Amino acid sequence: MAKEQRTFQAEVSKLLDIVAHSLYSNREIFLRELVSNASDACDKLRYAALTDDSLLDGEADFQIRLSVDAEAKTLTVSDNGIGMSHDELVENLGTIARSGTQAFVEGLSGDEKKDSNLIGQFGVGFYSSFMVSDSVTVVSRKAGEDAAWSWTSDGRGEFTMDEAQKDGRGTTITLTLKEDAVEYLEEMRLRTVIKTYSDHIAVPVILEGTQGAEGEEAEDQTLNTASALWTRSKSEITEEQYKEFYHHAAHAFDEPWLTLHNKAEGVVEYTNLLFVPASKPFDLFDQERKSRVKLYVKRVFITDDCEDLLPPYLRFLRGVVDSQDLPLNVSREMLQDNPVLAKIRTGLVKKILAELSKKAEKAPEEYATFWDNFGAVLKEGIYEDFANKDKVVELARFHTTKGDDMRSLADYVADMKEGQEAIYYITGEDLDSVSQSPQLEGFKAKGIEVLLLTDPIDEFWLPAAGTYQEKEFKSATKSGVDLDQVDGETKDGEDKAEDKPDTPALDKLIAQFKVALGETVKDVRPSHRLTDSAVCLVADADDMDMNMSRLLRRHQRLDQETPRILELNPGHSLVKKLTALAEADQSKALIDDAAFLLLDQARIVEGDPIPDPAAFSRRMALVMEKGLG
């Protein structure tokens, strides 16, 4: 087979360029990443050999070996793990198949410091080797196959594939080091890096002996402890060791926000070492919503794709769970609806939610940061996990009209006004727009707190929650909201729209508006919620919430918009002038134009498109001309 010259995926080329220039100060992590990948390869073969021991080919002792050639300036990292086929080499090293790749690339700004932080969230894995190398050669032979393949690149846009010779399975990576990276040929430097970053790796990392000054071969040295970190007592593990294990398990560069290391004993025995990241992984909102926690059985890696180990709303967790009760030869199919796994899942969820609750109580500012990162995901549990929805509700935090600090529902209920029987909320796309919505004017005037909800998931968990402490959730953007029963205070000197009785003249204006607007609105009514704005749109009490309607139309799940109710503020000067014109039977054409202009104004405030911009422009010009007349 002739050599193949291939081009990297565009995202890989951009990533390689950033890696080479942005992570220079911390480039020793390339060795951590290569050793971590080698360890994963050994784990995968150990599991595959449970059902096909011929894959081991008589070599059951896994190891990762480092060797140096000072003269050639090469560092080699090899493993006897599962190896890669031709197509797997191309797929794994020539493309980034991870979810969130496009978001990662779009997030790159060209600012080295900022991009370095982004790369830290995304993880660079194998590609970090180009921080220290002029060229990289990967030779791999997949377990159970005879053919070996070579992958070579200088990291500048292209790579070469060719047939190769290799004794035994596994992968060998040879780095030709840059002139300023020859420190990684020194035994002490390698020993320090492995001890710092990879001591927890359960596979021995061996530095091959080099020829001494007198021609004698030095002995091989095992550089790491080579025992599974989660099996050790917590008192024996340092924070630094926990952090490096997190880096290995999550393939991440940030630090863990929370570490949960527990051993459960009793009916079901298992150990978990789980981490909550300090920043959002790029695949957090991937549609598959897969868990990234690895399942082990008696220290043997089984899978990192176990749907039943943790519910999808806890998919931000990273780490390992090691069971003593599942059979070693368990398959992915056997894991489905497995009663032992179900008990482990129940115990894990209970422990995780309890630890988050403690953190929320003891370190509210830190918890607010966590919630900002993962709250939108955690809220999925309110409607997906009936058994734990009340616990998740207690963990939820919200922006509200009360101030900048995030608040719990317990805080909200404790501060409810006299006579207030509902928890009010408003949903929208961003905090700025919902906090300035005219529908909130009456609530603000009476000092009634409103939850400001901006996550798409909010439209789904609210119906599932139903009530909180027997208080119903009510949308502030629907009709039928009665604020009169609430004992609130309006600011001094401010007229209250609800104190203004409807007049025959106002009724006449509303009748004219209804005729002019026809079926474009469901109704026109005087407002009891507006204090400053002239108009607003609200949904009828039995209709879909307006933001939900927008979301469904955007995703083509709703063919047409439900007509809304247009509310007029009787106390607004513009409405008063229009009322006077209607009462005097004057300027019908002007009132008709005003009706459409005010409706479009309400749409603009809601963030909805104007259906006829040309008509809007024409009416606006006519009204301005008469006003300047």
Describe the protein.
- The chain is of the alpha+beta class and 629 residues long.
- The chain folds into 3 domains: 4-225, Heat Shock Protein 90 (2-Layer Sandwich), CATH 3.30.565.10; 230-373, 2-Layer Sandwich (Ribosomal Protein S5, domain 2); 497-628, Heat shock protein 90, C-terminal domain (Four Helix Bundle (Hemerythrin (Met), subunit A), Up-down Bundle), CATH 1.20.120.790.
- It contains 21 helices and 23 strands.
- It has a 9-stranded mixed β-sheet with strand order 1-6-5-4-7-3-2-8-9, with helices on one face. It has a 6-stranded mixed β-sheet with strand order 16-15-18-17-20-19.
- The protein is elongated and about 110 Å long.
Give the neighbour order of strands across the main sheet.
Answer: 1-6-5-4-7-3-2-8-9
CATH architecture of the largest domain: 2-Layer Sandwich
- Give the CA-based shape: elongated
What would the CATH topology of the largest domain be?
A: Heat Shock Protein 90
* DSSP helical segment count: 21
**For this structure, what is the CATH homologous superfamily of the largest domain?**
Histidine kinase-like ATPase, C-terminal domain
Strand fraction equals: 15-25%
Proportion of helical residues: 25-40%
Q: Structurally, how many domains make up the residues?
A: 3
Assembly level: single chain
CATH class of the largest domain equals Alpha Beta
- Tell me the number of strands: 23
Radius of gyration: 32 Å
Gap between N and C termini: 85 Å
Uncertain ranges: 491-501
Mean of pLDDT: 87
Describe the largest sheet: 9 strands, mixed
Structural class estimated from helices and strands: alpha+beta
